[in-house]
């Protein structure tokens, strides 16, 4: 496939990598490039395309490797991979980078329920130390005075506000928020369907039909089109014999004809996928299952409003949390409000009746100036009481970028 590389993405990654390999006197270059944005927008895949185009070799670390039952293992792993990558630069004489995927998933702190371990602290401290001293990275128990080659680090994630704040400061990490615009999406989706005979106009119409969907939606849509043929194949062979036909067969792998990729069929299948997404968002069975747990938690004595607004130090690791106030809101909703306000986002509240819920015709509740957690909770309680027979959702808005960062339903009719 002729995959598309966004010019903005290519420019940002290429400049960061090249700048770290140049000797620029009197200039302090951030070692880490942090690429963050919504899930499924192709951050890691765009990086791989840029690396391939530039001829850059990559050493990978997954966010899942940043925890271990043995304290210090993840930090040692980062140092080891960094030194290995520096050696590759020296031996092969070409650009190499260290890439950490989903850093926030492995080293971030999402709420007060996320455990902050020794390894999490060490991972943050290790990356900070490497960013400050990129040519002097030692392994525990040994010391090598020979300077290493500088290795640019690229990290990806969804929400870097969950990371330790000193790690993501500008001197150590350069941030790049990746949000593909319409032209980027048309280019990327055109690459996904490049072998399927869709015209440029059909690609544009497909993207405009599902403009709010992420890039991985279109990749999954193309994969879903093959389901019809695979289903026919399974029932032709027989469900009982499909394993031997596919895995241990002398007949060779099965062959499939090219599926129907006309635009109307793609839109029909895409709408089916969107409805499946909505079922996930609207079911929220975990809320029903945990209702008893919330009731037990809320029946326990809680702090007074004055105490609830006072920060509590939880061990000196840079994070603070407040005790829940005495309200009928769930603990989860209170935590979401605190998190939104802590990140500087504005609080919005919307409601809709059951009939208009099917069309997504939400209406805003009258929300005045919210100056803190107690104001947000009291305003939200008033809206819940006023629209007790309707759906109510909490909205987080980024005032700088004029975009929504969160939408979550907190009340349903008859719930």
TrEMBL record:
Residues 320-413 form the Ribulose bisphosphate carboxylase small subunit domain. GO terms for molecular function: ATP binding; ATP hydrolysis activity. Belongs to the RuBisCO activase family. The keyword Cell cycle does not apply. Pfam families: AAA, RuBisCO_activase_AAA_helical, RuBisCO_small. The keyword Transmembrane helix does not apply. Residues 296-325 are annotated as: Disordered. Signal peptide: none annotated. InterPro entries: ATPase_AAA_core, P-loop_NTPase, RCA-like, RuBisCO_activase_AAA_helical, RuBisCO_ssu_dom, RuBisCO_ssu_sf. This is Ribulose 1,5-bisphosphate carboxylase. It comes from Fischerella muscicola CCMEE 5323. Keywords: ATP-binding, Nucleotide-binding.
